[in-house]
C-alpha cells in the first residue's frame, strides 16, 4: 500500500476539513447557515482542492484498493465509516470523470470524421474540371498553369504550391485623394484613448490597446477620412465616468490634412448602469447591432454631404475584433452590404478543446462558465461573413482557425486558385487568411536607444552615482540593487508569472550553467505582487518556485525579481538591458505572437525565443536572434551563452533588429492592411443601398395627414420638387388638386409611393399555422386586431404595416384573400423567411435592390441537391425530405418534410454545409413541415434593418408582433432596439424542435431576460394589444 500513501493522505485531509467544520459549528444551526453562505464567496475550498487532486491524480484502481483496505479494517468509529463512504463516492466521481472524457473524445472524433467527409465532398466536386479548366490544361506550353492544375486534387495534395499574388501595395501618393470611412468594433472591456486601465480585469487587456492604436494609425494614413471605433457605452458607478461619454476623439488632425480623425463611439446596449463581462454580453448583441447601424447610416449621410456630393459614404470596411464584435460586424456587413474583416485575438474552439482535455470540468460546466458554444458559433458566423481574417502568425491559421467548420486551408487555397483563373468555385467560399503582425508605436524610442553607449549606466554604477541617480529612471535602481556586480550583461525575461511562460526552466538553465552565471545577470520581471500568498494559485506557485530555485542555486546577487513596476517603466527596463549589452529571452512553451520580442528589438536587444508559435515569423523578419526548443534546457543555455559571449554576433543581431523593426510599425501595418482590404473588396459587390432623405423642415400637424395621403397617390415630380418653395396655404391647395388629378386618372395610383414618413412601423411576424402547417384562423383575427389597435392610437396614415413570413408570396396572398384581409393595407410583404420583399403599392413587384443586396455568397443551384442528402438523418427514407418546387425561388430553396419524419436540426445542417464551403441561412417553417434555405444575409430581422435604412424609420419606432413560438428564426426577432410584443396564445404550433441540438447554446444566451423592449401581451385581443402599445409608448 506504499503507492497509496499520497492518496490516503489526501483522503485524511478531506476528513479533517469536514471534522473541523463540524466542531466549529456544532449545535449552531444559524451559524452553519451563515458559514455555508460565506464559504460560497471564498475563492479557495480545501475540500474541493483535495477531491480534485484525488480524482485527477489517481487511477480508480487506487481508490478501489483504499476502499477494500477501509472495509477490512472497519470498526464502529464514525471516522472509519465516513472514510468508507467517502471512498465509494469519490470512486464513482472518478468513474464519471472517465466517462465524461470518453464521451468528449468520441464527440470530437465524430466531428473530425464529419469534417473530413465534408472536405472530401468538396474535393470531389471541385476536381471535376469545367470547360475553362480543360482549355487551360490543353495548353501544354503554360508550365505555370500545369503546376496550378496539379494543385486541384486535394486528396493527393501534400505540398501546396505558392500562389503568386496580384496584391497592389497601398500607396499614400496614389490614394491621398480618397475619403475612406473605416469602422472598427471592439465590444467588451473598458475602452478609452488615454490612461487605459489595462489589466483591470480579463476583458481589458492587450486587445483594448491594439484597437485604439489601430484606429489612430489608420486615421493618420493618407486616403482615410474618418475612423470610428465602436464599443459599448457604460454608465456604471463601478467605472470611470469617461466610459459613459458617447463620443471621444482619438486624433485631432491638422487643418488641410484631408482627414477628420479617429473617434471612439460608445453605443448603449443592455443595462445602462452595469459593467457586463464579455461572457454575459451575448443576449445584448442585437441591440448593439441596431445602435451601430443607426450611427453608421447617420455618419454615411453626413460624410456624403461633406465629401461625396450628397451620396452616402458607406464604410470601406467593417472590422470586428474578437467573437462578439465579429458577430456584430457580420450583421452590419449583411445589413449594409459592405466588406467585413475579422480578427479573432483568441479563439473559443481551441480553448474549449484544451479545457476538455484537462478533464476537470464537464462540457456543460465549461459552457455554463464561459458561454463557449455561443462564442464558437459567433466565430463561425464571422468566418461565414468575412472577406478576410487577420492573424498574427501562420501558426494561428493552421492550428487554431483550422479547427473550425467554416475554414480549411487546403480548400481555401484551391478556391483561390480557381478564382484567379476565372473558374467557377461551384458556390463554395472560404475567407482569405492573411498574416499581418500587430503594429507598434516606436515614438518613445529615442535616437540614443539606437546608438552604442552606456553613459547613463556608468553614471548609475560609477563613483558619482549618488549625484546622478536623481536623473535616472527609478526602475533602474530598483533592479540594480539586486546585483553584486551590475556591470555584467543582463538577460531579461518579461512576462506574467504563468506556468506556460516557462520561467522556471530559464532559471534552471541559468543556475546550472556556471559559465553563464559568471558572464551575465538575470532579470525577471514577473508582474506586480504585494503578498505571494494572496495571488492566484498558478501565479503564486510560479513565484514560489522561482524563490526556491534562487535559493537552491544560491543565485543571490545574480538574479533580480522586483515586486513592482509600472507600465511606463517597461521602456526603461529594455533600455537598461540594452545598455549592459544584454539579451532578451521569451522561453514560453507556446507564444501565440510575441509582442515583447518586437519591443525588445526596438531598443536594440538581441533575442532568444521559443520556436513554438509567432516568434518564428518575427525572427524570420527581424533576423535578430535565435530560436530554441522551450523544453530543452541545454538549448536555452547554449543560445544565451552564444549571444552574450560572441560580441560580433550580438552586434549583428542588434543591427538587424534595428534595421528591420519598421516592418512592425503602425504605418507599415496600415499599408499592408489597406492593401489586403482593397484586394478583397475587388470581389465584393458595390452596395446599392440608398438612404431616405431627411425632410428639411418639419410639417405642421394640420398638414401631416394630407402629406401622408399625398404619398399614397404619388404626386408628380415637378410638384414635389417645388413643394418646399410654396407657402402652407398654396401648398395644401395644389396638393389637393394633385391628389384629385391622380384619383381620377387611369394610371397606377401607387407607382412611386414610398412610406418613408411613417411615424411608426408595425411588423406582424406571428407564425400562425395549425398542426399540419396550414394557416390557422388566428392569422385573420390577429392582423385585424393589430390594425384596429394601431388606428385607435396615432390614426390612419401615421402607422405602416409589414407582414414577414416563411411562406411564399403566392401562399401569403392566398391566405390574405381567404381571410378577407386587404393586401393594400400593408406597406411591404417579406416572404420566404426574409429572402424576398414585395410592395403592394407597386403591384407586388419584387424589390430588386434587396435581391441584389442579399445574393452575395449565395451558392444557388450548387447547394440545391446537397440539402436533401445532408438534412436527412441516418437510416431515413429518401422521400422524407424532398424539394418543394411550388415554394422555391431563385433566392430560396424550399423542402417539404414528411409528417413524422426525422430531419437534422438547423445547427447540425448548417455545420455540414459549412464543412463543404457553403454559406446559407436555414429556417424551418410551417410547423417544421418545410425547410427554407436562403442566402446567408437574408433573414426576417435583416428585413427590418433594410427597411429602416431605405425608409428612414428608426428601429426604435418599430413594433414587432410575434408568438411565444414559431419558425426556427422566431428567437432572432425578439432582441434589438425595436419593441417586441409577444402575443400569448397566438401561435399554437411552432418549429422549435428542429432549432438547436442538445450540445448547442441555450436560449438565454441570445435573449435578454431583462430587456425593456420585450413585452408579453396576455392575448391577441384588441384591448390587450392597445394597452401593451400604450405601455411602451407606441400608440401615441
TrEMBL record:
Native species: Rhamnella rubrinervis
Top EC class for this record: transferase
GO molecular function term, any single one: sucrose-phosphate synthase activity
Similarity-based family: Belongs to the glycosyltransferase 1 family.
Database matches in SUPFAM superfamilies: HAD-like, UDP-Glycosyltransferase/glycogen phosphorylase
Region (Disordered) location: 111-137
Taxonomic placement: Eukaryota, Viridiplantae, Streptophyta, Embryophyta, Tracheophyta
The entry's keywords: Glycosyltransferase, Transferase
Domain of life: Eukaryota
Subunit text: Homodimer or homotetramer.
NCBIfam families registered for this protein in UniProt: sucrsPsyn_pln
The UniProt record lists the keyword Glycosyltransferase: yes
InterPro entries: Glyco_trans_1, HAD-like_sf, HAD_sf, SPP-like_dom, SPS, SPS_C, SPS_pln, Sucrose_synth_GT-B1
Functional note: Plays a role in photosynthetic sucrose synthesis by catalyzing the rate-limiting step of sucrose biosynthesis from UDP-glucose and fructose- 6-phosphate. Involved in the regulation of carbon partitioning in the leaves of plants. May regulate the synthesis of sucrose and therefore play a major role as a limiting factor in the export of photoassimilates out of the leaf. Plays a role for sucrose availability that is essential for plant growth and fiber elongation.
Protein name per the record: Sucrose-phosphate synthase
Composition bias type Basic and acidic residues, residue spans: 111-122
Start and end residues of each Sucrose synthase first GT-B domain: 181-443
Ranges for domain Glycosyl transferase family: 485-658
UniProt xrefs under Gene3D superfamilies: 3.90.1070.10, Glycogen Phosphorylase B (3.40.50.2000), HAD superfamily/HAD-like (3.40.50.1000)
Domain Sucrose phosphatase-like: 798-973
Catalytic activities: beta-D-fructose 6-phosphate + UDP-alpha-D-glucose = sucrose 6(F)-phosphate + UDP + H(+)
One Pfam family from the record: S6PP
EC number, as in UniProt: 2.4.1.14
Keyword Metal-binding carried by entry: no
GO BP terms: sucrose biosynthetic process
Metabolic or biological pathway, per its Swiss-Prot or TrEMBL entry: Glycan biosynthesis; sucrose biosynthesis; sucrose from D-fructose 6-phosphate and UDP-alpha-D-glucose: step 1/2
Amino acid at each position: 500500500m506504499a503507492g497509496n500513501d499520497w492518496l490516503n493522505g489526501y483522503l485524511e485531509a478531506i476528513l479533517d476539513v469536514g471534522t473541523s467544520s463540524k466542531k466549529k459549528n456544532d449545535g449552531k444551526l444559524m451559524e452553519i447557515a451563515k458559514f455555508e453562505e460565506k464559504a460560497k464567496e471564498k475563492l479557495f475550498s480545501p475540500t474541493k482542492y483535495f477531491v480534485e487532486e484525488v480524482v485527477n491524480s489517481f487511477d480508480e484502481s487506487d481508490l478501489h484498493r483504499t476502499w477494500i483496505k477501509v472495509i477490512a479494517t472497519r470498526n464502529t468509529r464514525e471516522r472509519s465509516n465516513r472514510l468508507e463512504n467517502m471512498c465509494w463516492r469519490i470512486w464513482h466521481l472518478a468513474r464519471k470523470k472517465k466517462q465524461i472524457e470518453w464521451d468528449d473524445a468520441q464527440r470530437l472524433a465524430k466531428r473530425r470524421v464529419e469534417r473530413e467527409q465534408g472536405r472530401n465532398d468538396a474535393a470531389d466536386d471541385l476536381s471535376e474540371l469545367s470547360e475553362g479548366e480543360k482549355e487551360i490544361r490543353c495548353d501544354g506550353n503554360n508550365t505555370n498553369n500545369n503546376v496550378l492544375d496539379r494543385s486541384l486534387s486535394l486528396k493527393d495534395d501534400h505540398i501546396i504550391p505558392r500562389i503568386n499574388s496580384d496584391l497592389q501595395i497601398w500607396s499614400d501618393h496614389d490614394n491621398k485623394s480618397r475619403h475612406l470611412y473605416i469602422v472598427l468594433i471592439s465590444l467588451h472591456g473598458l475602452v478609452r484613448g488615454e490612461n487605459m486601465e489595462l489589466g483591470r480585469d480579463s476583458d481589458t487587456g492587450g486587445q483594448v490597446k491594439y484597437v485604439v492604436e489601430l484606429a489612430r494609425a489608420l486615421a493618420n494614413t493618407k486616403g482615410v477620412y474618418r475612423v470610428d471605433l465602436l464599443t459599448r457605452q457604460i454608465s456604471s458607478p463601478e467605472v470611470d465616468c469617461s466610459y459613459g461619454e458617447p463620443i471621444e476623439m482619438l486624433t485631432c488632425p491638422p487643418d488641410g490634412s484631408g482627414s477628420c480623425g479617429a473617434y471612439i463611439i460608445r453605443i448603449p446596449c443592455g443595462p445602462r448602469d452595469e459593467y457586463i463581462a464579455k461572457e454575459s454580453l451575448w443576449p445584448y448583441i442585437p441591440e448593439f447591432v441596431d445602435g451601430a447601424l443607426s450611427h453608421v447610416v447617420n455618419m454615411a449621410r453626413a460624410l456624403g454631404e461633406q465629401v461625396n456630393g450628397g451620396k452616402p459614404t458607406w464604410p470601406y470596411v467593417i472590422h470586428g475584433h474578437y467573437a462578439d464584435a465579429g458577430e456584430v460586424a457580420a450583421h452590419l456587413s449583411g445589413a449594409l452590404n459592405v466588406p467585413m474583416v475579422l480578427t479573432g485575438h483568441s479563439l473559443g474552439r481551441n480553448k474549449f478543446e484544451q479545457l476538455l482535455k484537462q478533464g476537470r470540468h464537464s462540457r456543460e460546466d465549461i459552457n455554463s462558465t464561459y458561454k463557449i458554444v455561443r462564442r464558437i458559433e459567433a466565430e463561425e458566423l464571422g468566418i461565414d461573413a468575412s472577406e478576410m481574417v487577420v492573424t498574427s502568425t501562420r501558426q494561428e491559421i493552421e492550428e487554431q482557425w483550422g479547427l473550425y467548420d467554416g475554414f480549411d486551408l487546403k480548400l481555401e487555397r484551391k478556391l483561390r486558385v480557381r478564382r484567379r483563373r476565372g473558374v467557377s468555385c461551384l458556390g463554395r467560399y472560404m475567407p482569405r487568411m492573411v498574416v499581418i503582425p500587430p503594429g507598434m508605436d516606436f515614438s518613445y524610442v529615442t535616437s540614443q536607444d539606437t546608438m552604442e553607449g552606456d553613459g547613463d549606466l556608468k553614471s548609475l554604477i560609477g563613483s558619482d552615482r549618488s549625484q546622478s541617480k536623481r536623473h535616472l529612471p527609478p526602475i533602474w535602481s530598483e533592479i540594480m540593487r539586486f546585483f553584486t556586480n551590475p556591470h555584467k550583461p543582463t538577460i531579461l525575461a518579461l512576462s506574467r508569472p504563468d506556468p506556460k511562460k516557462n520561467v522556471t526552466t530559464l532559471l534552471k538553465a541559468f543556475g546550472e550553467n556556471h559559465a553563464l552565471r559568471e558572464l551575465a545577470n538575470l532579470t525577471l520581471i514577473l508582474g506586480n505582487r504585494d503578498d505571494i500568498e494572496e495571488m492566484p494559485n498558478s501565479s503564486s506557485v510560479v513565484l514560489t518556485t522561482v524563490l526556491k530555485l534562487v535559493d537552491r542555486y544560491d543565485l543571490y546577487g545574480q538574479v533580480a525579481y522586483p515586486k513592482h513596476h509600472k507600465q511606463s517603466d517597461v521602456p526603461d527596463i529594455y533600455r537598461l538591458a540594452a545598455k549592459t549589452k544584454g539579451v532578451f529571452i521569451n522561453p514560453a512553451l507556446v507564444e501565440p505572437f510575441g509582442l515583447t520580442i518586437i519591443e525588445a528589438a526596438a531598443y536594440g536587444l538581441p533575442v532568444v525565443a521559443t520556436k513554438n508559435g509567432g516568434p518564428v515569423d518575427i525572427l524570420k523578419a527581424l533576423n535578430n536572434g535565435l530560436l530554441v526548443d522551450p523544453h530543452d534546457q541545454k538549448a536555452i543555455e547554449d543560445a544565451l551563452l552564444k549571444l552574450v559571449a560572441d560580441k560580433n554576433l550580438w552586434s549583428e543581431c542588434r543591427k538587424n533588429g534595428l534595421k528591420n523593426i519598421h516592418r512592425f510599425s503602425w504605418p507599415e501595418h496600415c499599408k499592408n492592411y489597406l492593401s489586403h482590404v482593397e484586394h478583397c473588396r475587388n470581389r465584393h459587390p458595390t452596395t446599392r443601398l440608398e438612404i431616405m432623405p431627411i425632410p428639411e423642415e418639419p410639417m405642421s400637424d394640420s398638414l401631416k395627414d394630407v402629406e401622408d395621403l399625398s404619398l399614397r397617390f404619388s404626386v408628380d415630380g415637378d410638384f414635389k420638387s417645388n413643394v418646399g418653395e410654396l407657402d402652407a396655404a398654396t401648398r395644401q391647395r395644389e396638393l389637393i388638386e394633385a391628389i384629385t388629378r391622380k384619383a381620377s386618372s387611369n394610371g397606377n395610383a401607387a407607382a412611386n409611393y414610398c412610406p418613408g414618413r411613417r411615424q411608426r412601423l408595425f411588423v406582424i411576424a406571428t407564425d400562425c399555422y395549425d398542426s399540419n402547417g396550414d394557416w390557422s384562423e388566428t392569422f385573420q383575427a390577429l392582423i385585424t386586431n393589430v390594425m384596429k389597435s394601431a388606428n385607435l392610437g396615432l390614426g390612419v396614415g401615421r402607422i405602416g404595416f409589414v407582414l414577414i413570413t416563411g411562406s411564399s408570396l403566392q401562399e401569403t396572398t392566398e391566405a390574405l384573400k381567404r381571410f378577407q384581409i386587404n393586401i393594400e393595407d400593408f406597406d411591404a410583404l417579406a416572404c420566404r423567411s426574409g429572402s424576398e420583399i414585395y410592395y403592394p403599392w407597386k403591384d407586388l413587384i419584387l424589390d430588386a435592390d434587396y435581391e441584389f443586396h442579399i445574393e452575395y455568397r449565395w451558392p444557388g443551384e450548387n447547394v440545391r441537391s446537397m440539402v436533401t442528402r445532408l438534412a436527412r438523418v441516418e437510416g431515413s427514407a429518401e422521400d422524407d425530405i424532398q424539394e418543394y418546387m411550388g415554394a422555391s425561388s431563385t433566392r430560396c430553396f424550399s423542402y417539404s418534410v414528411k409528417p413524422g419524419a426525422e430531419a437534422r436540426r438547423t445547427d447540425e445542417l448548417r455545420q455540414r454545409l459549412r464543412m463543404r464551403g457553403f454559406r446559407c441561412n436555414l429556417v424551418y417553417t410551417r410547423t417544421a413541415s418545410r425547410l427554407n434555405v436562403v442566402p446567408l444575409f437574408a433573414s426576417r430581422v435583416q428585413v427590418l434593418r433594410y427597411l429602416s435604412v431605405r425608409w428612414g424609420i428608426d428601429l426604435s419606432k418599430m413594433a414587432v408582433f410575434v408568438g411565444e413560438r414559431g419558425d426556427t428564426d422566431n428567437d432572432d426577432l425578439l432582441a434589438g432596439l425595436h419593441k417586441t410584443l409577444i402575443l400569448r396564445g397566438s401561435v399554437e404550433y411552432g418549429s422549435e424542435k428542429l432549432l438547436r441540438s442538445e450540445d448547442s447554446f441555450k436560449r438565454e444566451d441570445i435573449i435578454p431576460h431583462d430587456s425593456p423592449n420585450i413585452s408579453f401581451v396576455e392575448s391577441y385581443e384588441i384591448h390587450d394589444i392597445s394597452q401593451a402599445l400604450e405601455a411602451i409608448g407606441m400608440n401615441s
